Amino acid sequence: MPYIPSSRQYSVVTATSRSRGGSEVHCRSDDSPLLFEPLTLEAVPHIRPFLELSKARTCDFSIGGLLMWSEYFNYTYSIYKDTLYIKGVTEDDVTRPAFSLPVGASSLSESLDVLKGYCRSHGCMPLVFSAVPEIYVEQLRSLGAADITMLDDWGDYLYEAQSLATLSGKKLGKKRNHVNRFMLDNPDYLFEPMTSAMVSEVREFYSQIHLPLSKPVLADIEREQVMCVLDNLDRYGFEGAVLSVPGQGIVAFTLGEVIGDTLYTHIEKIDHLVAGAGETVNKLFAEMMIARHPDLRYINREEDVGDPGLRRAKESYHPVAVLSKYNVEMG
Question: Which residue intervals define the domain Phosphatidylglycerol lysyltransferase C-terminal in the entry (predicted)?
């Protein structure tokens, strides 16, 4: 069963905005063993094994969730004693350094000591963790958490993989109807795995149909990063698919990655003028990925970032959980 946030109420304040981080100085103090380096494509082979250890099922512990937003959140990383440390900024104050929960061989208590030493050496006390999955809040509280801040608009929508692949049940009846209508209108449609040979055509499609989010800064960054992923498809290690119809060409494409039992759908772009294209590419991609990864149980379709249209779309598929995240300041 997926982790479903409990009804336990925390004493929290809310934060709703994110901004681009400032410049990063890559240095190491004699008092700290951590050396933070830019989180770029070159880092992927080094950090992927650690991300595969995470049990959180939130997109912040995926290659796409980190790399696509690396510049925006000024992410850097360090590996020490077989443990991955990621540094960025807080969502509500870009002048304030923050860290992801460390992942690896060290215990959380040991990692806290390492990070507190780093923060003391670099003048960034108190230690702050960002985008903490709710399942770790109580553990951090027991280790001395002073303030807990819920991050509005940044909870990940988690779905049963089989549910998205079959669209069975009364709640998803409208989705099934949209898929059936698409297939009836386009009996010769083509759904195929994305390859590097398709990138040029996919880029052209995306440049024509791209519609910005209600938050233009996020939309601009997303557009840039989607193009970057397409240009470096093999290096990201994503799996994707393209939906096309005769005479029109591409009408939708999607890209994601599998970590553990969860598929993270990082990119899904649709021609909304083609009825049912979105529901169809979503369903067929889930089917394809389950066939490729028999142990796949969940699909994470990430946050709605406060966009009303995205929120309605994600809620309409009836997630089994919305994985809340928090900023946690340690005492």
Answer: 53-328
From the options 2.30.30.30, 3.40.50.2020, 1.10.3720.10, 3.40.630.30, give the CATH code of 156-322.
3.40.630.30
pTM for this entry? 0.89
What is the spatial distance between Cα 202 and Cα 176, in angstroms, rounded to a whole number? 26
Q: What is the pLDDT of residue 21?
A: 42
The amino acid that residue 180 corresponds to is N
* Overall average pLDDT of the 33-62 stretch: 96
Report how many helices (DSSP H) and strands (DSSP E) the chain contains, helices first: 11, 16
Return d(Cα 255, Cα 248) in angstroms, integer: 21
Class of domain 37-154: alpha beta
pLDDT band at 327 (very low <50, low <70, confident <90, very high): very high
Closest CA to 132 of 122, 124, 143, 123: 143
Hey, do 37-154 and 156-322 end up sharing a CATH topology, with the first three levels equal? yes
Q: In what order do the strands lie in the sheet with 249-259?
A: 190-193, 239-245, 249-259, 262-270, 298-300, 156-160, 321-323
Task: Give me the phi and psi of 226, to 5 degrees please.
Answer: -60, -45
In the predicted structure, residue 255 carries a pLDDT above the cut 60:
yes
Q: What are phi and psi of 156, to 5 degrees?
A: -85, 135
